[in-house]
Amino acid sequence: SQYNVAVLGATGLVGQHLIEILEQRDFPVAELFPLASSRSAGGTVTFKGKKIKVIDAETFDWSQAQIGLFSAGGSVSAIYAPKAADAGCVVIDNTSHYRYEHDIPLVVPEVNAHAIADYRNRNIIANPNCSTIQMLVALKPIHDAVGISRINVATYQSVSGAGQDAVEALAHEAAQLMNGRPIESEGKFARQIAFNVIPQIDVFLDNGYTKEEMKMHWETQKIFGDDSIAVNATAVRVPVFFGHAEAVHIETRMPISVEQVKALLADAPGVVLLENNADFPTQVCSAAGKDEVFVGRIRQDLSHENGINLWVVADNIRKGAATNSIQIAEHLIRDYL
Ligand code: A2P
Ligand code: 11C
Fold first, then answer.
1. 123 in ligand 2 pocket by Cβ < 6 Å?
2. CATH 3.40.50.720 occupies which residues in the chain?
3. CA 204 from centre of chain
4. What fold does the segment set 3-128+321-335 form as a domain?
């Protein structure tokens, strides 16, 4: 059967990818409803070669859709997710708004597809943060095999994580500087992003961490279903357009060798293993435009008996957002709707 699918935030960076990936994966769409604010209502998006009018979300009758893919920001999800859910539309929400509510499943299909069943609680499923998704796809087989007690991670996150405006801001700053012109002081980021790195993603919290760093901590525990895993994160914005990289350092409960980790990752769903050190993946050359999580630089931590280091790279807009949401929808229609 086919399903009516609404995409909220259809004109945004993730929204456009949602529409493209629905087509690429041949998701059984009966009718597509692209939704945005009144600002871009009346414009069009292209789906399967046809132009479809963008609808103002305020005027949309949610009973027309069976599945809603939401990516217009947390405050927008807060308004429309309950309306959609009450009208019988299952919401897959790509914002942080519902992620930490105990009765809302938070799902990475390769890791905890079983949790999708809990969509019945509120007709809402949350899609995790991009930096959490790629890390857990890589760590899941290791956690299952020997248990992970602690994760130390530093991220190298592209500007596309902050939306279309941020992509334009990096291009603009770079062009200004290359032309010998000063950049505006009030930019999209807290500091100049072109030719710089910024150790702040999202807002600072009272404990001194940023919200992006705490998302990795909260979401890892919820998705693995294990509150004993410690996550120590530093999240950094780098002047890359698409793709996030992560230096991940884990401590395992039982010892595991580099060769065993490689054997596990060679068979792991959604993972591309780069076995040789010199074949390491990068955002630009390996991950951008792809749906898999690329893992390389696997080595023993010389400072810790049960320590393993990995370099994990993925396209944050695809596996980190749009592709993961659509994979959730694929499980939903296969097993539940
Ligand atoms: P609009 O084009 O009408 O502003 P990005 O993450 O790339 O910045 O995109 C944000 C997406 O969320 C856009 O599609 C934007 O639509 C949409 N959006 C923002 N605010 C609202 C709102 N109040 N109602 C519906 N859609 C919204
Ligand atoms: C970034 N991780 O790279 C953020 C974007 O919680 O869904 C995703 C924010 C979120 O800026």
1. no
2. 3-128+321-335
3. 20
4. Rossmann fold (3.40.50)
CA of 292 to the centre of ligand 2 (A): 18
What ipTM was reported for this prediction?
0.98
pLDDT tens column, 238-266: 999 999 999 999 999 999 999 999 999 99
What CATH number belongs to 131-316? 3.30.360.10
Residues of the chain within CATH 3.30.360.10 domain(s) are 131-316
Q: Write out the two tokens for 176.
A: 């200004």
Centroid of chain to Cα 309: 22
Which atom in ligand 1 lies closest to the alpha carbon of residue 13?
7
| Average pLDDT estimate for 80-96 | 98
Give the Å distance between the CA of 229 and the centre of ligand 2.
22
Can 217 be counted among the known catalytic residues? no
Q: What is the pLDDT of residues 170-228, one digit of tens each?
A: 999 999 999 999 887 678 999 999 999 999 999 999 999 999 999 999 999 999 999 99
200 vs 197: CA distance, rounded Å:
9
Cα-to-centroid distance, 205 and ligand 1 (Å): 25
* Residue 285 falls in the annotated catalytic set: no
Ligand showing the shortest atom-to-Cα distance for residue 55: 1
Q: What is the per-residue pLDDT across 52-67, written as a single tens digit (0 to 9) for each?
A: 999 999 999 999 999 9
Which residues does residue 93 pair with via DSSP β-bridges, in sequence order? Answer: 70, 126
What value, to the nearest 5°, has the Cα angle with vertex 192 and ends 191 and 195? 135
Q: Which residue's alpha carbon is nearest to atom 1 within ligand 2?
A: 161
Q: What does the pLDDT read at residue 184?
A: 77
